[in-house]
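Message: A physicist's question: would you kindly supply an amino acid chain plus fold tokens?
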Amino acid sequence: MEHEHLPGEPAPEALPDVAPQLRGLRRRRGLTLEAAAQRAGLSPAHLSRLETGRRQPSLPMLLALARIYGTTVSALLGEVPPEHDPIVRAGRSEPVEADGWVYHQAGGAGRALQALRVHVPHATRADIVRVHPGEEWIHVLHGRVRLALGDAVHVLDPGDSAHFDSLTPHRIGAATRDGADLLFVHTLLQSPAAELCLGDPSPHRR
């Protein structure tokens, strides 16, 4: 059930420029709201709320939408520096929180290889299973992580890592009630295979 902002409540921290960018990117890709939502595993109503700023996207949603629109999470968050800086200083950017996920940019913006430091909430049955081109690597820093890869479920302890093909259906969540912290690295690949795993390759367009 979605939480509606009530008068008198402190407003949730907004993700800078994400809402208008999501709508503009979708339109530039020539996708209808329904086609983009299907590829991202969302309902059209949910994607509409993201595009109007009435809902904040979680990290998995941002990853899926960035891949569909051919951009990066850091670009969606407006973290594109004028030049590629090889050094990422601690505290350079504020952490972003959405739907229980808290993440810090840990790599350079505008790169095909995206690195994040993530706090993952406790796993639930409602967590979305993801399938997309590319590779992912996770390394557990604190807590325990439950990683579902296809039909197998793995529990990772601090110091454990996993490196897998993202075309394998996968789901990540904490196995500990207070969540888990991990390093998360993924590639952004744009290829014909993306159409097969993200939705109908021939959507109806407006």
